[in-house]
Design brief:
InterPro entries: Ald_DH/histidinol_DH, Ald_DH_C, Ald_DH_CS_GLU, Ald_DH_N, Aldehyde_DH, Aldehyde_DH_dom. It is built from 27 helices and 31 strands. With about 775 residues, it is an alpha/beta fold. It folds into 3 domains: about 210 residues, Aldehyde Dehydrogenase, Chain A, domain 1 (3-Layer(aba) Sandwich), CATH 3.40.605; about 190 residues, Aldehyde Dehydrogenase, Chain A, domain 2 (3-Layer(aba) Sandwich), CATH 3.40.309.10; about 230 residues, Aldehyde Dehydrogenase, Chain A, domain 1 (3-Layer(aba) Sandwich). A 10-stranded mixed beta sheet has the order 13-14-15-12-11-16-17-31-25-24, sandwiched between helices. Strands 8-7-6-9-10-18 form a 6-stranded mixed beta sheet, with helices on both faces. The structure holds 1,4-dihydronicotinamide adenine dinucleotide.
Length: about 775
């Protein structure tokens, strides 16, 4: 018999993992669980059953939290927070380290419990979920240790409300809890109702680690409990889950002045070029879509194969599908386990049944809550299954001809979480990676993650990064709390001075001076009541035109950092040449004498951001394995901003400069009471080689323009420094397309360092992590 024949005749025998210890852990606790509040488990109350999806058996009964449970958890967290923060980073590091050690000591218990509760293959729980959760606590013990040194001037936010999903129950807990605790926050966590057991087991080890009571609180229950956590008196909400719920949370937190991070769904492309190593790429597909049964937010669920190899690729993929084993998740030989719950299975089946595509399966799944690996082809890009997140072992496939078409198809989605690119040609791979609209790109790989590397998306996949310094920073605030903004009013006028030659101030859209669509203008008076000029009143349509012009100027993102710096220096030079005129205009508008200082600071600010253009560096993350993980600071796209009212020129420049320095385009609405300096600045823009559409300047009512900016589909971010309080309106409006917002309502002294620096650069960029494995 040849070796080949021996292999062909070999069949796998089951290799079941023993579940005894995990089941004993449940039974020891009476198989009924309360919440974990203030360092102790509460008495179990009314609740619901948690089942093993693979068998349908009841594992335990969990308690549905009431509003008083949630309030008690938040109170405990609030009470514990000052002392926890006062321990200092080094003091907290010891606890995080102890938690990591305990997770390691009880690794098998956690892995088996996770598999029983969630249905994922034990191989994955054992080799991926639990080790990565440990790694998160180790890594963040280190960040806590270094916090004071490396994040000077930053402090904890306070109490964090965290709501997590069911696909990686323990790992998601680690992603949320470790950075929050490391930075000195306390936490109220709500695990998903289908999978709360490992969180409760984690509470157990918090007790063993002697974690001070109230530092971590866990309340169980369904979405209603999640809502209560979101609506409680917390300082930050961190959510991972569906885009639909993420949107609701954005609405519920709008205007409350609390931090929010959203890690939502995806429909990530998996692009195979014809020069790819096909066997590796096939294994990549297996990891991308059949890992955790496709119940992964960053699952490579859209396969795009270059036409020349499509037939061969599909043939080989189908052959590989025939070797995937679906079944008992506790069996160490199983590739695809159970679907988390019959409701989720029904959802997957309904989406697939309605697809109308050509469905391939290499075999049936076993009876019960299992769904077989499925490949669907023949769909058009707009088909629901090409666009909707299935969250199951279902891959849709299509073909492309050229790299440009691959990029176009890949980006044809409302999501932007992850993408895989397969090519043996480094030029192709590194050319395509930056063009993909996504927070993560894996080259010749998929689903690579690590605590040191940022994870998170763009578009409707949410915002904010988890992991790395960038993730930890989002659990902190600047210590020097700035006062709240107070409304700034313009002046009324009585006298109308005749002017020798009438000069009509216009707005600036697409590199051209533009009249307002509505044809209205507002008289702007100086502090002495004299007429300075008429400022156009922009409306929704002007916003649309400006956004369109900005979109058309996408080439700016591709300009070199050196070139962008040159343009900013040139702006500074040209502004400086007109310093006298601007200083006089500002003094006249504001009735103060700070015009000269403002102009000088504005020139300086342009120089500062010119300097930053090629110095706001990315990083190479020291992740384990033979892989380079590059964190690139990418521009967000088009940023709309309501400029500060109180500093008519310096405010505009302080907002515009970081936006364009990082390669974004800007739609700016000038100071409402003092708009004339911004209109005058158009002439500086016109003479400084700023490509048309990169900066667009409108004037008008902040209150009226806030909504069109917040709800516009093609704007990536909205900032507001307006003295009119528009936080609720902007944050609620932005929920629709899950747009990033920056509205903190704080009064900055624009003349000082408060008005510039890394905070602005961070807000103007998104971190894209590009993973490039290596090895001959
Ligand atoms: P979900 O988004 O409803 O649930 C995630 C978490 O949010 C759970 O803890 C849930 O109890 C909680 N929750 C639900 N409604 C809430 C509300 N109004 N306010 C606060 N918290 C709330 O996800 P679900 O229903 O379990 O799954 C539905 C679909 O969502 C999946 O098929 C998948 O497409 C997507 N999903 C995406 C995830 C991701 O990692 N991006 C994770 C889970 C689901």
């Amino acid at each position: 018999m040849s070796v080949k024949e021996i292999f062909e005749t070999m069949s796998y025998g089951p290799a079941p993992e023993q579940a005894g210890d995990a089941l004993a852990w449940i039974v020891d606790r009476g198989a009924r669980f309360g919440h974990f509040i203030d360092g102790a488990f509460t008495e179990p109350g009314e609740g619901f059953e948690s089942r093993n999806p693979a068998t349908g058996e009841v594992l335990a009964t969990l308690t549905q939290a009431t509003s008083s449970d949630v309030a008690a958890a938040v109170d405990a967290a609030r009470l514990a927070q000052p002392e926890w923060e006062a321990l200092g980073g080094k003091g907290r590091a010891r606890y995080l380290y102890a938690l990591a050690r305990l997770l390691q000591k009880h690794a098998r218990l956690f892995a088996v419990l996770e598999t029983l509760d969630n249905g994922k293959p034990i191989r994955e729980a054992r080799d991926i979920d639990v080790p990565l959760a440990q790694r998160h606590f180790y890594y963040h013990a280190g960040l806590a240790q270094l916090m004071e040194q490396e994040l000077p001037g930053r402090a904890a936010l306070g109490v964090c409300g965290q709501v997590i999903p069911w696909n990686f129950p323990l790992l998601m807990l680690a992603w949320k809890v470790a950075p929050a605790l490391a930075m000195g926050n306390t936490v109220v966590l709500k695990p998903a109702e289908w999978t709360s057991l490992t969180a409760l087991c984690f509470a157990d080890i918090c007790q063993q680690a002697g974690l001070p009571k109230g530092v971590l609180n866990i309340v169980t229950g369904d979405g209603a409990v999640g809502e209560m956590v979101v609506n409680a008196e917390v300082d930050k909400v961190a959510f991972t889950g569906s885009t639909e719920v993420g949107r609701k949370i954005r609405e519920a937190t709008a205007g409350r002045g609390i931090a929010l991070s959203l890690e939502l769904g995806g429909k990530s492309p998996f692009i195979v070029f014809e020069d790819a190593d096909i066997d590796s790429a096939i294994e990549g597909v297996v990891d991308a879509i059949w890992f955790n049964g496709g119940q992964v937010c960053c699952a490579g669920s859209r396969l795009l194969v270059q036409e020349g190899i499509a037939e061969d690729f599909h043939t080989r993929l189908k052959a590989r599908m025939a070797t995937l084993r679906v079944g008992d998740p506790l069996d160490k030989c199983i590739d695809v386990g159970a679907i988390v719950d019959p409701a989720q299975k029904a959802r997957i089946a309904a989406l697939v049944d309605a697809s109308g595509g050509e469905v391939f399966r290499a075999g049936d799944a076993p009876e019960g809550c299992f769904y077989p690996p499925t490949l669907i082809s023949g769909l058009s890009p707009a088909d629901p299954l090409m666009q909707e997140e299935v969250f199951g072992p279902v891959l849709v496939s299509t073909t492309f001809r050229t790299p440009a078409e691959a990029v176009q198809l890949a980006n044809n989605t409302r999501y932007g979480l992850a993408a895989s690119v397969w090519s043996e040609n480094i030029n192709t791979a590194l050319d395509v990676a930056p063009k993909l609209v996504s927070g993560i790109v894996w080259i010749n790989g998929s689903n690579m993650m690590d605590a040191a590397a940022g994870f998170g998306g763009v578009r409707e996949s949410g915002w904010g990064r988890e992991g790395g310094w960038e993730g930890a920073r989002s659990y902190t605030r600047l210590v020097d709390d700035l006062p709240a903004l107070t409304p700034v009013e313009g002046f009324a006028g009585e006298k109308v001075e005749p002017v020798a030659v009438d000069r009509t101030a216009k707005m600036y859209i697409g590199g051209k001076q533009a009249r307002p669509d509505g044809g209205y203008a507002k008289a702007v008076y100086g502090a002495d009541g004299s007429l300075i000029g008429q400022a156009p009143i922009a409306n929704r349509k002007d916003i649309r035109n400006a956004v369109e012009a900005a979109r058309g100027a996408a080439g700016w993102a591709g300009a070199t950092a050196h070139n962008r710096a040159q343009v900013l220096y040139y702006l500074g030079e040209n502004l400086s040449a007109r310093a006298d005129g601007f200083a006089a205009l500002i003094d006249r508008m504001t009735g103060e004498t700070g015009g000269r200082a403002e102009v000088e600071a504005a020139v300086d600010r342009l120089f500062t951001y010119a300097a930053w253009c090629d110095k706001f560096e990315g990083a190479v993350k020291p992740v384990p394995g033979r892989v380079v993980a590059m964190a690139l600071n990418e521009p967000c796209g088009v940023i709309g901003a309501l400029c500060p009212d109180e500093a008519p020129l310096l405010g505009l420049v302080s907002v515009m400069a970081p936006i364009i320095a990082m390669g974004n385009r800007a739609v700016l609405v000038a100071s409402e009471p003092f708009p004339m300096a911004a209109l005058e600045f158009i002439q500086v823009l016109e003479t400084s080689d700023v490509p048309g559409g990169v900066v667009n300047i409108l004037t008008g009512s902040h209150a009226e323009l806030a909504k069109p900016l917040a709800t516009h589909m093609d704007l990536e971010c909205v900032w507001s420094f307006s003295s009119t309080d528009l936080a609720a309106e902007i944050e609620r409006g932005a929920a629709g397309v899950v747009k990033r917002t920056w509205v903190d309502g704080l009064a900055r002294d624009w003349l000082t360092a408060q008005g510039e620096g890394r905070v602005f650069l961070d807000a103007a960029t998104e971190v894209k992590t590009v993973w490039v494995p290596y090895g001959a």
